[in-house]
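Feature request disguised as a bug: please show the residue count (80) next to Acetone carboxylase in the output. Example input:
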Amino acid sequence: MTDLPPPGYDVRASECSRAGCRCAASWRVEWRNPKIHPEDRRKIWVACDEHRDYLRDYLAAREFPVWVSSLHPAGAEDPR
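Example output, currently without the count:
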């Protein structure tokens, strides 16, 4: 189970999840807190190029499983 955005929400056109950042996101950062989330549940943050590593490292430091992927997979049209 993944926490999905509401219907009609285009995560590809989102702003970075880093507090105070208004840059367009290019990265999908999926994670889960193993203490409270079952293995099939993932939370989703999005990140700009500048904050991708910051958000990944923030979660990894808490020993949360983290997966990072492009919001715009090869061959996908970039909405920007």
